[in-house]
Amino acid sequence: QVQLVESGGGLVQAGDSLRLSCAASGRTFSSYAMAWFRQALGKEREFVAAITRSGGSTYYADSVKGRFTISTDNAKNTVYLQMNSLKPEDTAVYYCSASRGSAISPDYWGQGTQVTVSS
């Protein structure tokens, strides 16, 4: 069992940056592939970024590639999403996830944190 708690969301202007954090507790953090998803109002949840258990590989949705960076700090059991050059279309609730298998098929979800980007 893994518990995930996101933080760091807020209201920013277009072009600003935010860093989301996701603190994990429970089983060994490094046993899971970690990912971020987002869900905008009225839309389906979509994949944003993922990182493998070893941290050696990262994957990004085309819409955020070059602007967002996912990383982990295994000593702190925390995964981060650094978001730069934010756009109004990045507005969504952002969810952290943990997967025993593929990162795009999560086993555990956090409660989400709202990110709002004004134009």
What would you say this structure looks like, in words?
0% of the residues lie in helices and 53% in strands. It contains no helices and eleven strands. Strand 7 (68-73) and strand 8 (78-83) form a beta hairpin. The protein has 119 residues and is an all-beta fold. It has strands at 2-7, 10-13, 18-26, 33-39, 46-51, 58-60, 68-73, 78-83, 92-99, 108-109, 113-118.
Name the helicity range: under 10%
How would you characterize the largest beta sheet?
A: 7 strands, mixed
* Morphology: globular
Number of helices: 0
Q: What's the Cα radius of gyration?
A: 13 Å
| SSE order, one letter for each helix or strand | EEEEEEEEEEE
Structural class: mainly beta
| Gap between N and C termini | 40 Å
Percent in strands: over 45%
The low-confidence parts are: none
Average per-residue pLDDT, rounded, comes to 94
Count of strand segments: 11
